[in-house]
Amino acid sequence: MIIRVLVFLSVGAVLAAGAFFAPAVSSNLDFESVSGSYSVKPADLNLVCPGPVFRTGGESGTALGQINRIGSASAEITATGTGEIEIAQLSESGVGTIELGDSRVYESRSLLDATSITNTNADPESPQGSLVIASSTNQLVATDSMRGLAAASCQQPSNDFYIVGGSTASGREALLVLTNPSPIDATADLKIFTDLGEVKVSGLSGISVPAKTTTVLSLASFAPQVPALAVFVQSQGAKLAGWIQQRAVRGTAAQGVDWISPNPQASEQVVIPGLVIRGTGAIKQVSRSEENSDAGHALRVFAPEGANVTVQITSSEQDVFGAVFTGIVEPGSVQDFPIAELLDGDYSVFISSDKPVYAGLRVARGNPRQTPRVDFAWLSPAEELTSNRAITIPDSGDTILVLANAGSQRSTAKVQNLATGETVNVSVPALGTATVSLSGPAQIFAAASVFAKAIVLIEGQISDIDVADPKNLGSEVLVRFR
What we know:
Blueprint: H1 2-21, H2 31-34, E1 36-40, E2 46-49, E3 54-56, E4 67-69, E5 73-79, E6 84-89, E7 96-99, E8 105-111, E9 115-120, E10 133-142, E11 147-153, E12 160-164, E13 172-180, E14 186-194, E15 197-198, E16 207-209, E17 213-218, E18 230-237, E19 241-250, E20 253-260, E21 267-277, H3 280-290, E22 297-303, E23 307-315, E24 323-329, E25 333-339, E26 345-366, E27 374-379, E28 389-391, E29 398-405, E30 411-417, E31 423-428, E32 432-438, E33 442-444, E34 450-458, E35 461-466, E36 475-479
Antiparallel strand pairs: 1-36, 2-9, 3-4, 5-8, 5-10, 6-7, 6-9, 10-11, 12-18, 13-17, 13-19, 14-15, 14-16, 14-18, 19-20, 21-26, 22-25, 22-26, 23-24, 23-26, 26-27, 28-33, 29-32, 29-34, 30-31, 30-33, 34-35
């Protein structure tokens, strides 16, 4: 035992002596030299088009759970800048590519599915926005169960958005369409709001939207027989594009279909240009004879915190009176305000509120000599023209650009045909409305306090196209090692 203790003490002494007499080893890391600000390139600009409309119930309309697309949609695309434009229909494996160069390109495509349009390999210093890529789709639907014009701007995917519009009341069908253009799966959580407040049911969370697919949900399965809807979508994983497809049927007669696009951010000052009224006589006749709620115009307001709202409707004609009314929207609820007794003409809607609100506008189009006799469009609020932006329009029918001035002074908006270069200046009165006809893809120049919406009229049907400016922003990221 004594020998073991002596051995242990000897070994300890040797190790201590080695540690004491060993050469010093030091390492210096200059933290300041590796800290700093690093530029992060903006993500590729990407837009998603909804593709053709959906039909439920199969050809017979009675096949439960069967949802399929019908027909094809026409897409109009214009682009300029650097790199390439990739056009990919989600159901196809191939990707079409358009090289960008010195001149602006114009492209028309027939779409059989949701489609992703992306500016790839662009110079990191190149600007983004609708002047780089602008696209919209339109489809004139004419089947036994569905008739109407469904048009929409192709939208930038997002992690969360509100859609205000639609109904699941008798004769109404509202489908929530969620498209995931990325190679990453996503899950979505929903909140549904009605005139009675938020809907509390199971099945609204963890909705799967796999990569490169579209998920379609009937809102009637969560909120049946509801006359007024607003839907909040929040995704995890990939960003989503989303719409509500609204359809109306009266008995066996189809009476309109449209895409409802997401709202901009909630605001205390909301502007919706584009209350373009045509066929008032037919609208009144259908409304009286059939008690058809879609045969008329209505403003819908969703107030997360509740709101007192004042609504002013102005005409583009100085001698035509619009309307003024007020209302109260309870917290977390949706309120419809019918709009009646307006003559045929072009109007804009200005909403002032004491709390931020979202809104939507249903516009009816009367057509006594065709089927359906009444079509409708759901308009989302417009964005202020804080930047130059471009839109594309259908190559048939008539497209009216409606401009609304929310300011206290007259403003001038400049509109240029991108294909011909022809430019017009449009004077928009304070708290007023002005219009100009479009004959091709157009650039609308920035104008303070001015908002814009394009209204499409084809064969007696109506729909709308947003004037938006989608961008991904780069940033400077401060990195510091500690």
